Amino acid sequence: MPDFAALREEMVARQIARRGITGRRLLDAFREVPREEFVPESVRDLAYEDGPLPIEAEQTISQPYIVALMIDAAGLAPGDKLLEIGAGSGYAAAVMSRIADEVVAIERRPELARLARARMARLGYDNVRIVEGDGSIGLPGEAPFEAILVAASGSHVPDVLRAQLATGGVLVMPLGAPDALQKLVKVTRRSADEYEEEDLGPVRFVPLIGREGWRAPDEITAPLPELIRRAAEPLPDLDDPGFGEMFDRFAAARLVLLGEASHGTSEFYRARAAITRRLIEHHGFSIVAVEADWPDAANVDRCVRHRPKREGEEASFERFPTWMWRNTDVDAFVRWLRRYNQGRAHEEMAGFYGLDLYNLGGSMRAVIDYLEGVDPEAAKVARRRYGCLEPWSRDPAAYGRMAVTEGYGRCEVGVTRMLKDMMARRMECARPECDEWLDAAANARLVRNAEEYYRVMYQGSAESWNLRDTHMYETLCQILEAKGPAARAIVWAHNSHIGNAAFTEMGREREELNIGQLVKERFGEQARLIGFGTHTGTVAAADDWDAPMQVKAVRPSLPDSYERMSHDAGVPAFLLDLRHGVTERALEEALTTPRLERFIGVIYRPETERWSHYAEAVLPNQFDAWVWFDETRAVTPLAGEHEAEAKGAEETYPFGL
Ligand code: SAH
Q1: Based on the domain organization, do 606 and 545 belong to the same domain?
Q2: Which residue, of 184, 300, 342, 351, has the fewest CB within 10 Å?
Q3: Ligand 1 atom, smallest distance to 67 CA
Q4: Does any ligand 1 atom lie closer than 6 A to the CB of residue 206?
């Protein structure tokens, strides 16, 4: 066996010191680290040669002199925290750890990261941490660093890396295409936004592969299902606590919007319930706002927050499509919420709210009832104003028709005034009484917007759609505002409402907007949009509006649709994280080509499926994540009146069966 200690001394003298790098600390560091421990067995004897050597995973260990040059250029000193990108064998990180206080080194190849980690442990270098991942974006969470050394050649100096330098800090990085001669550059951060750049001469490195670097050769050719398969994170069983945990990554947001690809698929409800439970129990979310009518959801809210029933309260969700909320999955969730709130202080309870605007009659009655309790004179005024709409409350569409023929909305002024009056009673929502006010105010707004909604329904679908989604968005904002700046919400609504409409046919061709788009415009990354999809199975849906619910077979998804690509990935249930910077670039690019996506609502018409249910979208812009269940089952509607009576009415409250 060669005398490695002697070879090491010789390396330091000949390869480093004689070439002009003479800092004592630096030379001592090279004297200390056994380079032979960092190369594969087959090249061990060559460990102290004056050049790079091949290591595992077709990578290289850099030439000692180049490592020295980079450390010298970075001006590394005790006390520094430094980041190395491209840990490879770990050799450079080991040397640097003998000088700096703390070294974090990122390596993209898992195999190399593992080996490097084992070496550090064996040598007892406990101030080095090897992180596996794409280092081309650095480690923003751990910045600032006094030095960043990049050991692989990039296409440019990423801004995200510059931003992770401490003031006065230095980044050293090779730039240039994989097989060309590259140049080593040194970037010094002079102030918050001033950087100085210097050229240190020609070098040759392996490519930096990642979001801010080059593409891996195998990423270029892989077909989309294969890219999805690689990035797909398999989801545990819906009843496994691990299911909700998979979504912890979105828990820092203020709003998490959960979609669905139909209004009658059990898996979508159960998945949303599991995620919601997790966000409420572990992450401080306290608002569950759903695509249901306000007054109906308000009854559920009274039940889950252990508030008394409202005088004259009607059963919830009695109108078409009843199965959308009166189903066993929603029932199970509501029961959970009620148990969760049991014994909690008022401000710690999680509430259940409806964002939609169809139940005009229910809302009018709720406003009047509220005023009757707090201000009987105002209740009289409300009765008179709402009296205008009362004849139409069972069939508001008829009001819309009438308004069109008469050329104006005869009830508009009254309902607008009513809303203004209600808002003037504004309340501080830290107190329990606020819930009553919030409820009445939301109902007053529902009446005002529904009046307009039914009128514009006759002027074209985009306008009424926009009115409805704007109403839902405003209701959401109103709840958030009422509950204070710390309040955080989860929304359950169809993909068509929560996926950013600007990136679908809706927005691009029909000028339709939706809740997802509006919250993104206002909250940016503080809002996370999560879409759901399925390939086949069964769904609860009707042939037509007001027609009976049926369990229908869902056709296998169309070729080339996002659904078919997800199906072909071959993972039965998965989460695909679509956040920019998290998604592999090749996948993001491949997904960015517009494709068809399926939208099943309360009506499903398999005979005309392509035209009735598919629309073009750009998935990674529409959603922050995509949740996939390859095969799904229809929801089970809650039992009918008689069965419920036999069980005892209280049991199924708040559905009032
Ligand atoms: N400093 C290393 C040199 C390793 S070669 C040593 O002393 O041995 C460069 C390494 O960068 C390779 O292991 C390669 O897998 C890795 N790499 C390339 N792109 C990367 C990226 N985006 N993030 C982290 N590591 C990367």
Answers
A1: yes
A2: 342
A3: 7
A4: yes
